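Quick one, T. Sequence first:
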Amino acid sequence: MHILVTAGPTREYFDSVRFISNPSSGKMGYAIAAEAARRDHCVVLISGPATLAAPPGVELVRVQSAEEMFEASVAAFRKCRCAVMTAAVCDYRPAERLALKLKKEAKRRDISLVPTKDICAHLGGIKADRVVIGFAMEDHDPRIHAEAKLAKKNCDAIVLNGIDNVGSDEARIEILRVDSGWSGPFSGSKAQVASVVVDLVDSLAGGRSG
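Structure tokens:
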């Protein structure tokens, strides 16, 4: 089965060197890609800036911005049976990127932000009989927000995780499926949690067919 996995943060630049981002390490997405490849799935891993090496047997596509991740994801999804959207894509980007480094001055600077494209919602809208699994990083009312995200993005399942997972080698998740509701929590190393997520992929997308 062909599987798309997104991972890591994005960087949204406001001048030639400075950007808005987040502390996502990409570890969860890379672990999922590695586990899926270990099970003989064909994996395309689209990664924002991360210091991790490409997992064996995985096609790695490196990107920087949310727009680049959007374009790469849409292109890769054309041949994929399932998408697992672990990337921590910035929700906003600067409305303008300056060509040169902004020099410091003793005055206030305001940056106008505009929304980035919602990659997971876009894939959910075009998936037809394919499977889209989203991730929800929540720091309050987690199940309420995950349930809303499941419906809004037309996902088949949402993996709920918390901010304590960011950058860690360990993770704790819960899973919300359209067809069966909540399960979990599941805790362990990110490799162990990745196995749970790939089990979910196999269950929803019909094993290695397609």
